[in-house]
Structures are given as C-alpha cells and as structure tokens.
Automatic annotation (TrEMBL):
This is Cytochrome P450 307a1-like. It comes from the Eukaryota. The chain crosses the membrane at residues 6-27. Belongs to the cytochrome P450 family. The keyword Iron applies. PROSITE patterns: CYTOCHROME_P450 (PS00086). Keywords: Heme, Iron, Membrane, Metal-binding, Monooxygenase, Oxidoreductase, Transmembrane, Transmembrane helix. It comes from Limulus polyphemus. InterPro entries: Cyt_P450, Cyt_P450_CS, Cyt_P450_E_grp-I, Cyt_P450_sf.
Length: 520
C-alpha cells in the first residue's frame, strides 16, 4: 500500500526535477549568449519599420548595392539591417569578409532559407551544392567535385576542357558568321556555346544547337540565373508566399524540365558505367554512390543529380559575364586592339588560342579579370550557424551575412581610378598577371565557387577567339559603357546588342600547329 501511495509522488517529483533541469539548461544557454553578447559591440544600423524592416531604404535605389553603400557611409564597414523579417549583417571591408569566409567559415557556413531556392531545386534547396546548408553530405559532394572541376595543369582533365571549349568556339564562330554586320542580341548564341561546354565537361554529353529539349533547358537556366541574382520581396517577407504561389509553382515546373534531362543522362551513364574508368563527373558520383551504399553511406543519386544540375547552371553565369566582356571591349577599342595583337603573337593567326597559350595571353586574361571586377557579381549570402561575431560585433544565430564586394571592387584605396575600364591594373611591370588578395570574384574559403576553373578558362579563350575573328562594335547611337551604372548590376537592364564584323581572313588554319595546341 505504501508503494502504491508513493508512486504518484515519485512521478510528480521526477517531472518537477525534469522541468527544473530544462529551465536550468535554458538559463545556462541564455547566460552563455548574454556573456558572448556582453563582451561584444551591438551592431549599428538603421531602425526598421514594422513588417518592412529597412526595405524601404534600400528600395529607394535602382541598384540595391548603392543603398547598402549609402548605409555603409553612415554606419561603417559592418552594420546590421533588417529586411522584412530577416535579420542581416552587411560586411564591406576586406578584413570583415575574410573573417566571415575564412577564419570563421564554420560559424557562417549556411545559406539563406529562401522559398525561391526551394522551388528551383526540387522542393528542397539542400539538394543544391551552392545553396544548401553545410553538412557532412555537402562536404562529401564538394570533395568529389572539386578535384574534377579544378584539374591540374598538363593533365587529361585540362586537355578535355580545352578540347570542348575550342570545338564549341568553332561552332559559335560559324553561327556568328551567319549574322555578321547585323545588330544582334548575342546572348542566345553565347548560351548555346557555354551550355554545350558545361554538359560535355560534366556529363560527356553534347546537344545539337537546334535540339528543342536542349533549347528549352538553356532558356530555363537563363530564367533561373536571373532569379538567383535578383532580390525579391518574398525572400525577406516569406508571408508573401500566399501571393506568389503561381510564380513559385512556375519555377518548380521549370526545374522539373531540367530534372528530366539530368535523370536521362544519369540513366544512360548507369547502363554503361565502367567503375575503373570514369568518363566524367557523373561517373565519379555513380561510382561513389555504389561503393558508399555498401558501407551504409547516405549520398543518394538524387543528391548527385542536383549537384550536376547546379554545376551545369554555371553556364548561364559564364554566358552573362562573357556578354558583359564583349560589350565592354566593344566600348573600348584600344582594349580590342591589344587583345588582337596579343593573340597574333601567341598564334601567328595560324590557329585559334588554346589553354596552352595562357601564359602568352596575359592581357586577355587581365581583361577577363577586369570584367569580373567591373560587373561585381555578389557572393551568395551566408548564414550564421551559431551565435558568433564579426569584427567585434555580436551576430546572433541565423543572421544572414551579405558581402558588399561592390564597394570593395570600386574602392579607390585599392584601385587607381576604379570607375575606369583598365585591364592593365591586373598586370605587373613585366606584363605578368597579378590578382591581388583583395579581389576574390568567386568567393574564398570552404564555400568558394566550384565552377570557377571552367568559367575562367572559357572566358579567356572565348574573349581571345571571338576578338581574333571579329571586330565587335556597339550599334550606332548606342550608349558607351557607363562604369557608374554597371557595377553590381549583374543582369543588364536592357539586353545587350552588338555588331560582329568578320576580320578579313584573320586565321589560316595550320593542322600541325592546331594539333600541338590540343596536346597539352
């Protein structure tokens, strides 16, 4: 009887102790947070409005980065700003960016949880290698992809990369010859070229330019690219989802079209897979998944498929940069002439340039770097994985960090006449390429861009070959490039139009010299 009487009391006491322990743990965590916060400064920044935060301030500017720059002048290199319901930190100095991206990369390894990101990547942004939060799975995918995407010089990987780039450039030249001397929008021509380069290098798959499925996928990737590099209210005010259901579904439907193509490619690879001789990145993933499954691994085929989706999408970023490059070169004839002279010195116009010529194409490479500086494509925002700090300022967990590379790339403390297009700034007195430590257009640290090697190689040969073959002009009456308006814009407000005039017999193909180029 005594036991029966004590049982409820014991249970009650246990419940009380459990609750007290939980309260104690919560208080301990809060004390730790308070201790961290009390040792740090409070982020300066504008006071936001209910619901909107400080979105109304940024909304006053045509280019949002002009708004962030204006706030920097008032609040400093590191400041806090609330956009809608999202707490953000904007970092503008080199020291702050390096702290976030390198020395405290683990503290800032996640990505924003935007609804659009989920829609674009099969309903879960964590499938994306670029937009996922950091995880063991993400670490595995990067470890598999990084060596393949960054082949060592004089390796078979570089030879394949060179072969795909140079062959697709031949097709691009043929296409542009059909519309020479006309005012055209070059983007569709360039995107077909870059898409085939990426698909061949990643998947060993080439498409006929007129293939309707291929054309549709290229178009979809261009739409997704524009989505990713433009901010939308729904990103910062998720409650707007109720008004954006149709748009989100459209993005999901477009992503499904890409999924179908990728699944077909993976199916074809599975049927012909030789684990001892992987042909491309798809084979590398399939081999790992097969071996990993035996060891109880968690990497699934869908993870690999979306990684390849994601990397193939880099062709749209590359195409956009290449288009900006042609536009900027067309607006600066002296740059065009120097590239043509340099390519002639490297090839004697007996062939087109190739990756083996890289050391001889210093000015062309410097031009590509200057294009990257001027366009100032923003680094994808990071998100704090825990309570931490930046430059002595307290940053709570889940705070989004935005990188103001716009200001860094236009800072007169680092660059002489930053609003002038000058490839020479990336050359030493001896004419060698020098990329300064304060310039990192593809990010840095553990989440640096996986596709930068393929992008830089294609941009180098793309500019060199097209300028070798054509004089590129702006249409009559078109405005010259305005370096007060371009930086940070990424996607041109109005589609770029150019004229390609074939240079009279600039290249006499020499089979012997061409074969030397392809044997790296």
């Amino acid at each position: 009887m005594i036991l029966y009487t004590l049982a409820p009391v014991t249970i009650a006491l246990s419940a009380v102790f459990t609750i007290l322990a939980a309260i104690s743990l919560v208080l301990h965590i809060r004390r730790q947070k308070f201790r961290l916060a009390s040792d740090l400064q409070v982020l300066p920044g504008p006071r936001g409005l209910p619901v909107l935060g400080s979105s109304h301030i940024i909304g006053r500017y045509d280019n949002p980065w002009d708004g962030f720059s204006a706030l920097r002048k008032k609040y400093g290199d590191v400041y806090g700003v609330t956009l809608g319901s999202r707490r953000c930190v904007v970092v503008s100095s080199l020291a702050a960016m390096r702290e976030v991206l390198v020395s405290k990369s683990k503290d800032f390894a996640n990505r924003p949880n935007f609804l659009r990101f989920h829609a674009i990547f099969r309903g879960d942004r964590n499938f994306s290698v670029a937009l996922c939060d950091w995880s063991p799975k993400q670490k595995t995918r990067r470890e598999l992809a990084f060596p393949y995407m960054h082949p060592r010089s004089a390796s078979h990987g570089v030879e394949r990369m060179n072969s795909f780039i140079t062959k697709e450039l031949q097709d691009l030249i043929s296409s542009l010859l059909t519309v020479q001397n006309q005012v055209i929008e070059p983007r569709p021509f360039i995107l077909v070229c870059t898409a085939n380069i990426f698909y061949q290098y990643l998947c060993n798959k080439r498409f006929e330019p007129k293939d309707p499925t291929f054309q549709k996928v290229v178009e979809i990737y261009d739409v997704v690219f524009r989505e990713l590099f433009q901010g939308f209210a729904i990103d910062f005010m998720p409650w707007l989802k109720v008004f954006n259901k149709k748009r989100l579904q459209e993005l999901r439907d477009k992503a499904d079209e890409v999924t179908k193509l990728t699944e077909t490619i993976f199916n074809e690879h599975e049927e012909t897979l030789d684990e001892n001789n992987p042909r491309d990145l798809v084979d590398i993933f399939l081999k790992h998944i097969k071996e990993d499954r035996k060891a109880g691994g968690k990497l699934a085929r869908e993870d690999a498929e979306v990684t390849v989706d994601d990397l193939c999408g880099g062709h749209s970023v590359l195409g956009n940069l290449w288009l900006w490059g042609l536009y900027l070169v067309a607006g600066h004839p002296e740059v065009k002439e120097r590239i043509q002279a340099e390519v002639f010195q490297a090839t004697h116009n007996h062939r087109h340039p190739c990756l083996q010529d890289k050391l001889s194409l210093s000015y062309t490479e410097a031009t590509a770097l200057e294009v990257l500086r001027v366009v100032s494509s923003p680094i994808i925002p990071h998100v704090a994985t825990k309570d931490t700090s930046v430059q002595g300022f307290y940053v709570p967990e889940n705070t989004m960090v935005m990188f103001n590379t716009f200001d860094l790339n236009m800072d007169s403390d680092y660059w002489k006449e930053p609003r002038r297009f000058s490839p020479e700034r990336f050359l030493t007195k001896e004419g060698r390429v020098l990329k300064p430590s304060y310039f990192f257009p593809f990010g840095t640290g553990k989440r640096t861009c996986l596709g930068d090697g393929l992008v830089k190689s294609t941009l180098l040969l793309g500019l060199g070959t097209i300028i070798q073959m054509f004089d590129v002009y702006l249409p009559e009456g078109a405005d010259a490039p305005d370096l007060n308006a371009i930086p940070g814009l990424v996607v041109p407000r109005n589609e770029i139009k150019l004229i390609f005039r074939h240079r009279q017999s600039p290249v006499t193909i020499n089979a012997k010299e061409t074969s030397v180029c392809l044997t790296l």
